[in-house]
Specification:
Blueprint lengths: L4 E5 L2 H11 L3 E5 L5 E2 L7 E2 L5 E2 L2 E2 L4 H11 L3 E4 L5 H13 L17 H7 L8 H29 L10 H17 L4 E11 L2 E10 L2 E2 L1 E2 L2 E2 L4 H13 L3 E13 L7 H12 L3 H13 L1 E3 L2 E3 L14 H15 L35 H4 L5 H17 L4 E12 L2 E12 L3 H4 L19 E13 L8 H10 L8 H10 L3 E4 L2 E4 L1 H13 L6 H15 L5 H18 L12 E6 L2 E6 L8 E3 L7 E6 L7 E7 L2 E6 L8 E3 L3 E5 L7 E6 L5 E5 L7 E2 L3 E5 L6 E5 L4 E4 L12 H19 L14 H4 L2 H5 L3 H10 L6 H7 L4 H26 L4 H7 L15 H5 L9 H10 L6 H8 L3 H26 L3
Parallel strand pairs: 1-2, 1-7
Antiparallel strand pairs: 3-6, 4-5, 8-9, 8-18, 9-10, 9-17, 11-12, 13-16, 13-18, 14-15, 16-17, 19-20, 21-22, 22-23, 24-25, 25-26, 26-27, 28-29, 29-30, 30-31, 32-33, 33-34
């Protein structure tokens, strides 16, 4: 048996965590996701051979595959890709490419990244589960068959690029569109409520009118009082009644049970409602928590695998949390036996995944907070609280219902008081929970008097637009998609321009509505809810080994094919054969299927004709103004162009006068990539910025300021001002002109000239080692390798270093040497940094050179720069020297990465404080 074991995982971050846990004898490499897939520019599915997929190594993954093959030589190989269908398929591809037999025990699963679980898992490998692979293959093949054939149909129908359709995304889009249609056709219904202020035996309380005679005031969507005249009549009747009586008082205890621990969909919903996060952001942060973070105890994953639809929890985790609850909250918060939660489906192979929970409940959010980024802490806290709460006792409320009767009118007051918080002690109230309402002590059959009556008008509300949370919930309830598909589905819809966000709400765009209407009419099966949900059930059948995957693909592909053949084909005007969508280096276009006999082509996106807007041209007074469609949006011009060259922007105004020409106003435009920018409406003015302007003026030059980035930092919009905060427009124009020149040369088939300068040789770089004062370890690695990365492996063995550490030292050294070489070369040519910056258009006002701050300069600012205790300790011990951080980290028992991060944060704050003090000293 080989002495060394290679473990293949998906993520580099996970590889790093697992390598630290397993140590010597193991090498962990990452596949970085899928290494093989169907080809990009062809169908890749053999329809004549039972839908056999034709896989190929992805172009960007060929180096990864080559590295894995090299690393696997002479080693035992274990495949530890993610524990789901997708991960099983990736593992199958890796095994196939490495020449391994998938039936051998080489597959391991890490449901949590902790030393104990990881070490146990590598001792229990199993064969790759072919049923899981087949289920993923069926989904991938069917999605390719539908998407590859349907997406071009949409692009041709709507004459637009980059349109797509998919089995899950099109159904999700249909939900959004139908909800928007419900909102548009919704007719508000008027109704009235009456709130009475009562007094009984000196106690005052409020009660709402509940019924009139035998009819309820509100029953579902049915209302008894629907206009003001009815409300006045009932109010007059209520006031006329002199003797009210408390006819009944019902007291009961209401229990509210905890929710189960998170599964993927409920985690996305809770993060959306509580944190305001999108589904993709939630999954991105959860991935980090699963893959591992650096703690004092070592690198460890904080949560279990985050793609699951099971609420099951292991016995070990239940034992730990049941010991934790009474010791931290008291014995009254622990139920007699563990809480169990029913899953949404029968137990299958997928139920091997636990619910999403902390890997150890003893790692409380507060105890790990200083080791996490802010968003990581928030999500971990949510997961930890939900899991602990799921094993706590119910919350108990005392609920009192009081009926006040007067003739045929019944008023009702409901009081609810939290008697025992139970699981709410940890998880808190949900959004929309009713507030407590405490009623005073009242006696049944006691007389009551009406002190005041308040009629109030209301209107029914339309159904709300979907949010990430509510859309995921509906998709899950309908059985459409799987935990791993919800976040990328919403992302795809947004990226394709099918939906837009308004706060948390998701609203379909006009394009999204048009595409949905076309699909419903022409491809009803693709967007049919039941049809799509049935496929998920059939994929589960494949996973359970109950159905062959080609049969399932055929069941769903053949109905689609019937609809596909009914779509009218666009014909070539020259030869009458059908046109098809084609792709060249210049983008998509329509070409004849008779090529090369017929070479007819046409643009995909039709050029829109100018539209009259009903205004005379203010420049020539002869022509009419028209709306034209340019590459950057619409604009207004004269229809006599080029005789009359009048133009103006048709863009929303910011209401700010142009600070450059003072003749136009600043309008917001959108680039071809969909990003906003701001320019002057006066076509003769070239004012242009990429950040929104504000009304405040720059105190130096008087131009408007800009709000920069998320922080909203105020900078000047004047490129000539020293407070200017935008990009260098001259440099942008130069780069744009260079790109256009290169594009024209390529279009003519000419080779674009490249720089003739030779890269620095080792002979050029070696003399700079002493000049730079490289750390000894970096200098030694650089000298021994003579600047050749391929020599790093041998040098690592010579120096008895891990290869990764040697490679890191090599890259650090070579980066510094090349930077120094470039600087010295520019100086020799008379092109020092300032001259080069000017040549790139980045020169700013020349300032007198200042010597760099020394540690003596910086040390005195530690107390006033706002450093944390850890940052202060690190910078003091290292005396501002980064090369001393490694030794300081060992002395403090911290990881080198963590210490380096604290060092950089501390030094940044010190330099900022030093710079501020220096400016104040010279009166700046």
């Amino acid at each position: 048996m080989p002495d060394s074991t290679l473990i293949v995982v998906e993520s580099p971050a996970k590889a790093k965590s697992i390598q630290k846990m397993l140590g010597a004898g193991y090498e962990v490499r990452a596949s970085k996701g899928h290494v093989a897939d169907l080809p990009e520019r062809e169908l890749g599915v053999n329809l004549e051979a039972d839908f056999a997929p034709q896989y190929e190594v992805k172009k960007d993954k060929q180096p990864v595959v080559d590295d894995l093959k090299k690393a696997a030589r002479g080693k035992r190989v274990l495949i530890a890709t993610d524990p789901d269908r997708e991960g099983e398929a990736i593992g199958w591809h890796v095994a196939r490419l490495l020449g391994l037999n998938p039936q051998n025990p080489l597959r391991v699963e890490f449901h949590e990244i902790t030393p104990k679980v990881v070490r146990a898992a590598v001792q229990q490998p199993r064969p790759i589960d072919q049923s899981l692979v087949d289920a993923q293959q069926a989904r991938r093949v069917l999605d390719r068959l539908v998407g590859y054939q349907l997406s071009p149909v949409l692009s041709m129908e709507f004459r637009r690029r980059a349109l797509s359709a998919g089995r899950v995304q099109s159904v999700a889009l249909r939900l959004l569109v139908e909800r928007e249609q419900e909102i548009e056709v919704f007719v508000p219904q008027e109704y009235w409520t009456l709130e009475g202020q009562f007094e009984s035996e000196g106690q005052k309380f409020k009660a709402m009118l509940y019924s009139v005679g035998q009819e309820r005031v509100q029953s579902g969507e049915k209302f008894l009082i629907t206009n003001e005249s009815q409300a006045r009549a009932v109010a007059q009747q209520a006031r006329a009644i002199k003797n009210y009586q408390i006819s009944s008082i019902e007291r009961r205890e209401r229990r509210r049970n905890a929710s189960p621990p998170f599964i993927t969909s409920t985690l996305q919903q809770a993060a959306s409602s509580r944190l305001g996060w999108t589904a993709s952001r939630t999954m991105r942060v959860a991935q980090k928590l699963y893959e591992g973070v650096d703690l004092p105890e070592g690198t460890v994953g904080l949560i279990t695998y985050m793609r699951t639809d099971s609420t099951r929890v292991s016995e070990e985790a239940l034992t730990e949390v049941r010991q934790f609850i009474p010791s931290h909250f008291g014995p009254g918060y622990l139920p007699d036996k563990p809480n169990t939660y029913a899953g949404k489906k029968a137990v299958t192979t997928q139920d091997a995944h636990e619910a999403i929970r902390p890997t150890s409940v003893t790692r409380t959010p507060d105890s790990v907070r200083k080791h996490l980024e802010d968003e990581e802490f928030k999500l971990y806290q949510l997961i930890w609280q939900r899991f602990v709460a799921s094993q706590m006792t119910p919350a108990i409320f005392d609920q009192t219902t009081v009926n006040v009767t007067g003739n045929e009118l019944v008023f009702r007051a409901v009081g609810s008081v939290l008697k025992f918080d139970g699981f709410l002690r940890v998880y808190g109230r949900e959004e929309g929970d009713d507030a407590e309402n405490l009623l005073p002590p009242l006696r049944e059959n006691a007389a009551a008097s009406l002190l005041d009556l308040k009629p109030e008008q209301h209107f029914t509300e339309p159904p709300p637009r979907y949010t990430d949370a509510s859309l995921v919930k509906v998709l899950e309830e309908m059985g459409i998609g799987r935990p791993s598909t919800y976040a990328p589905t919403i992302d795809t819809l947004e990226r394709r321009g099918y939906l837009e966000r308004s706060g948390k709400s998701l609203k379909p765009t006009p394009l999204g509505r048009e595409v949905t209407g076309y699909l419903v009419q022409s491809f009803p099966d693709v967007v049919a809810y039941d049809f799509t949900a049935q496929l998920e059930t059939r994929l589960d059948d494949i996973e359970a080994g109950k159905a062959p995957w080609p049969k399932v693909v055929r069941e769903f592909y053949e109905p689609f094919l019937k609809d596909y053949h009914k779509v009218p084909k666009k014909l070539c005007p020259k030869c009458g054969r059908p046109l098809e969508l084609r792709v060249s280096r210049f983008g998509q276009f329509l070409g004849c299927t008779g090529y090369p006999d017929c070479k007819y082509t046409e643009r995909l996106e039709l050029k829109k004709e100018p539209e009259l807007i009903g205004e005379a041209c203010p420049a020539c007074h002869v022509g009419q103004l028209v709306r034209r469609h340019g590459r950057y949006g619409t604009f207004i011009s004269c229809n006599r162009y080029p005789e009359c060259k009048y133009t103006r922007d048709e863009a929303p105004s910011t209401g700010i006068e142009c600070p450059k020409c003072h003749a136009g106003e600043v309008v917001q435009k959108t680039s071809k990539r969909g990003k906003p920018y701001y320019r002057c409406s006066n076509q003769s003015c070239d004012f242009l910025v990429f950040d929104p302007l504000v009304a405040e003026k720059c105190p130096i030059c008087g131009w408007n300021e800009m709000a920069k980035g998320r922080s909203g930092k105020r900078v000047c919009s004047n490129p000539s001002c020293e407070r200017y905060g935008g990009p260098d427009l001259q440099a942008l124009n130069e780069r744009r002109a260079e790109r256009e020149t290169r594009g024209k040369l390529r279009a003519r088939g000419k080779r674009v000239a490249k720089s003739t300068e030779q890269p620095a040789s080792w002979a050029d770089l070696e003399p700079l080692i002493a000049q730079l004062g490289l750390p000894p370890d970096q200098a030694e690695v650089a000298r021994r390798t003579q600047g050749q990365q391929k020599a790093v492996t041998a040098v690592a063995k010579e120096l008895n270093l891990p290869e990764e550490a040697a490679l890191k030292l090599f890259r650090q050294a070579m980066f510094k040497l090349r930077m120094e070489y470039g600087k010295s070369k520019a100086d020799r040519k008379g092109e020092g940094p300032k001259v080069k910056a000017r040549a790139r258009g980045k020169a700013k006002k020349t300032k007198p050179s200042q010597p760099s701050a020394t540690w003596a300069d910086l040390e005195r600012f530690i107390g006033q720069a706002g450093l944390t205790a850890e940052q202060s300790d690190i910078v003091r011990r290292s005396k501002g020297q980064q090369k001393a951080v490694a030794e300081v980290a060992k002395a403090l028992g911290k990881s080198e990465d963590k210490a380096l991060k604290l060092f950089r944060q501390g030094m940044f704050k010190l330099r900022m404080e030093y710079g501020k003090a220096r400016k104040e000293a010279v009166g700046a």
